[in-house]
Amino acid sequence: MKAIRLDAGQLVDYTPPANVAAGDVVVQGGLVGVATSPIPASTPGSLAVTGEFDILKAAVAITAGALVYWDAAAQVATNVVATNTLMGRAVRLAALGDARVRVLLTP
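Predicted structure:
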């Protein structure tokens, strides 16, 4: 047997070095996840790596279907590649004045 399925891949284990609040976006290498509940520092928890989330975004317009990146320095989603980490695709248009973008996370 080459592989044993553990779950549907919707959650990954995560033990944070500092407290993580519900809704925080966490980047581990190239993997972006969202804490769906608080995780105290040094305590095992989990991050959602699939699903739709409304994420705070930079002051940019993001079209439906566009690639969305996480800007860890600014703590916002953006459509700017630069040194940001790919988090998924926009599910619908997020206009310039919108505070959030709906993102389908894709690991």
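Summary: The chain has a mean pLDDT of 93.
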